[in-house]
Automatic annotation (TrEMBL):
InterPro entries: NAD(P)-bd_dom_sf, NAD(P)-dependent_oxidoreduct. This is NAD-dependent epimerase/dehydratase. PANTHER family: NAD(P)-BINDING DOMAIN-CONTAINING PROTEIN-RELATED, PROTEIN YEEZ. One of its GO terms (cellular component) is cytoplasm. Coiled coil: none annotated. Residues 154-179 are annotated as: Disordered. GO terms for molecular function: aldehyde dehydrogenase (NAD+) activity.
Length: 215
């Protein structure tokens, strides 16, 4: 109920207030999450893939998406992958391990802002959904090994999903994250002409790797 008050009722109130102005805004961009897709067993998903939200938060996000797309202010829904960047890097987590298998879909925070700005300035994707993710979804094990190599450290310990799920006291949100696997496509964003500042994790994590190596 609390999440619905924030994501659904909050959006409805904002639309009501802005749409009622003498000069209402022409565009609404609602930022959602790739979490609305649920689990796809590591398969690719795009804007045409049916959503299957599995948590309270992703269910209300999906409801809010429909409100945005049906708004009197013409709406666009941007589904963000996992955001990272300064103060949002998870370097130590992946360097120390253990790292559970699965895929990472990521987007640098500068590109998150860049996508919104681009869609507004170029007046694109009115009434549409756009998936915002970088060029290369990556396996967590491969990502962790790359980070370790770049930092001059041995590869971190790994664990399978089965091993992780068998651990006692695993929270339900953590369980759902582990069980949820997919690779998100940015083909539509590319067709719209957006150019990434950080097209993959290699460019995006360079700052974090440099800072870690210079400690």
């Amino acid at each position: 109920m609390y999440k619905r008050q924030i994501y659904v009722r909050g959006l409805e109130t904002a639309i009501e207030q802005f749409a009622g102005r003498e000069h209402p805004p022409e565009r609404l961009v609602y930022t959602s999450s790739t979490g609305v897709y649920g689990d796809h067993g590591g398969d690719w998903v795009d804007e045409a893939t049916p959503t299957e939200p599995t948590t309270e938060k992703t269910r209300v996000l999906r409801e809010a998406e429909e409100i945005a797309l049906g708004s009197p202010i013409e709406g666009t829904v941007v589904r963000f992958a996992g955001l990272y960047g300064p103060e949002r890097y998870r370097l130590e987590r992946y360097l120390e391990g253990p790292v559970t298998e699965g895929y990472l879909n990521m987007l640098h925070r500068d590109d998150a802002a860049g996508v919104i700005r681009y869609l507004l300035e170029e007046d694109l994707a009115r009434g549409e959904v756009v998936l915002a993710v970088d060029d290369e979804p990556v396996g967590k094990w491969g990502f962790a090994d790359w980070l370790a190599e770049q930092c001059g450290l041995p590869a971190p310990p790994k664990e399978t999903k089965t091993e992780r799920l068998s651990e006692p006291n695993l929270s339900e949100p953590a369980r759902r994250r582990i069980e949820t696997s997919k690779r998100c496509s940015n083909a539509k964003l590319g067709e719209l002409g957006y150019e990434f500042s950080y097209p993959t994790f290699r460019e995006g994590y360079r700052e974090a790797v440099t800072a870690y190596s210079s400690r």
